[in-house]
Design goal:
The structure holds 2 protein chains of 2 kinds. Chain A is built from 10 helices and 10 strands. Chain A is an alpha/beta fold. Chain A has a single domain, classed as Rossmann fold, CATH 3.40.50. By secondary structure, chain B is mostly helical. Chain B is built from 7 helices and no strands. Classes of the chains: A alpha/beta, B mainly alpha.
């Protein structure tokens, strides 16, 4: 069993009267890619958004249970949610660069968290982030151009650069390639693979092939319950549960 | 019986490939039967038909390979589906090799035209043929029904085929000592027995594939891990 970095125990999440997650126990290892899969409405995105308390933004959402990162209880009332989100970055389904320049997009998080003490340090960290996101070579001479002037795939890598600029411990990705063409998807998948040496990555995806390609662990959710979690190579070749097999093979369960 | 796919065409394509494997298997069994019959009464026309049918079997192997390849490319199957899509490629290849052994047996019948038909080694060879035909029949049933218990029984029967092969070898040696003039015929009989022993091995490989389709476990890999083959030893 891997040493877990993110640890969920007895997690229940409700939207008003409707329960979205039921008693989830899930350990997520450090510096690995963990894929959350399952049909729409199964609770995988709800679980993902619980990890950086994005669900707090939904007034009727209620969390119950224990969710820890590196031993720290995330839902402790004393937790600074803004600081938490610097530690737990998020990349969304649709690339969402700010209506600012490429440089400003990456520098934004550094500024609001006060992570660069000089102009030079700011430039260095922006360059480092763009290089880490595999985008530097394509934008080095156009940093002043608007972020949304980039292609979809480049915008998504810009969002990843913006996320890693503040050097989070965890990166959450909610279907990060669903709006991208196959080439841009391949570039982002390759990037995810290179980022896992430094970050713990949790990704929600509807593409079974993508989950199989890029993750080391896979968790299958169904109707708000965690049905199965295991090494990706096992889940996609010899799943333990019939429900998992039915889902990944596209059968009527 | 596993659940149906949401995409019905996927099930139809998988079933179609399975039906072709079963058809190929039936044809291979009849080839072995006819080739063994030719050992009793050498018949040029029959041998020619067997050789022509072997070409048909080779074509079926290629057809199954193409269909399975297309299915994998189109559906990108996973887990059980992947094993069900991949295994026909391997099983068809094993059947194709068995077909080759049947052809080779038929061709060798010319060399045995003058051999006494009640000769002990030839009787053992016929016994081996009957046994591998029965094993092949059972393994096709096991494949069709995903029956791993039946597949295990078929695997176990191969030991009997191996024993018969050794008995055929010993009988042929005795025959050579008793009548050195017949040495060439006995060598052909030894090679025939070896043919059927190889057929048994191919059937065992099919049985392993059936096991792997159902369980995901690669028996060949686990057998090799548990019992590494001793180097430099002839059986």
């Amino acid at each position: 069993m891997d040493k877990s970095y993110i640890s969920a125990k007895g997690v229940n999440v409700f939207y008003g009267d409707k329960q979205a997650l039921f008693d989830i126990d899930l350990n997520i290892g450090a510096k690995k890619v963990t894929a959350l899969i399952g049909p729409s409405g199964c609770g995988k995105s709800t679980f993902l958004r619980s990890i950086n308390r994005m669900n707090d933004l939904i007034p009727i959402c209620r969390f119950d249970g224990s969710l820890q990162i590196g031993g720290q209880e995330l839902y402790d009332p004393e937790v600074d949610v803004v600081a938490l989100r610097a530690q737990v970055g998020m990349v969304f389904q649709k690339p969402n660069p700010f209506p600012k320049s490429i440089f400003e997009n990456v520098a934004y998080g550094l500024k609001i968290h006060g992570l660069a003490s000089s102009k030079q340090e700011m430039q260095d960290r922006v360059e480092w982030s763009l290089k880490s996101a595999g985008l530097w070579g394509e934008v080095a001479d156009r940093l002043d151009e608007p972020g949304n002037s980039l292609s979809g795939g480049q915008q998504q890598r810009l969002c990843i650069a913006r996320t890693i600029a503040v050097q989070p411990k965890v990166i959450l990705m909610d279907e990060p390639c669903s709006a991208l063409d196959p080439i841009a998807t391949a570039v982002v998948e390759d990037l995810i693979d290179s980022l896992r040496k430094d970050y713990t990555i949790v990704i929600v995806t509807h593409s079974m092939q993508q989950a199989a390609r890029i993750s080391q662990r896979t968790a299958f959710f169904h109707l708000g319950k965690l049905i199965e979690v295991g090494n990706t190579k096992d889940v996609f070749t010899t799943p333990r549960e019939e429900q998992t097999q039915n889902y990944i093979t596209g059968r009527i369960g | 019986m596993e659940n149906a796919h949401i995409v019905g065409r996927f099930d139809r394509d998988l079933n179609n490939i399975k039906a072709r494997i079963l058809e190929m298997g039936d044809l291979v069994i009849s080839q072995i039967k006819d080739a063994t019959g030719a050992l009793q009464n050498t018949d040029t026309a029959k041998v020619d038909r067997l050789v022509a049918t072997d070409r048909q079997i080779n074509g079926m192997n290629k057809d199954i390979h193409t269909r399975a390849e297309r299915l994998i490319a189109l559906r990108q199957p996973m887990a059980l589906d992947l094993r069900q899509a991949l295994s026909p490629i391997n099983i068809a290849a094993e059947l194709e090799r068995i077909g080759d052994h049947a052809k080779s047996t038929a061709k060798r019948s010319y060399k045995l035209a003058d051999a006494p038909k009640d000769q002990e080694t030839l009787q053992i060879v016929r016994q081996m043929s009957a046994m591998v035909q029965a094993m092949l029949t059972d393994i096709l049933v096991a494949y069709n029904n995903s029956d791993i218990e039946l597949a295990a029984k078929v695997r176990a029967l191969d030991l009997e085929v191996d024993k018969l092969n050794k008995a055929a070898f010993a009988a042929a040696l005795r025959g050579i000592f008793e009548d050195p003039q017949m040495a060439e015929i006995f060598v052909h009989l030894i090679l025939l027995a070896r043919n059927f022993e190889r057929v048994g091995d191919h059937v065992v490989n099919i049985a392993r594939h059936v096991h792997q389709i159902v369980t995901g476990e690669d028996l060949k890999a686990s057998d090799q891990r548990n019992c590494p083959k001793p180097a430099g030893r002839l059986s």
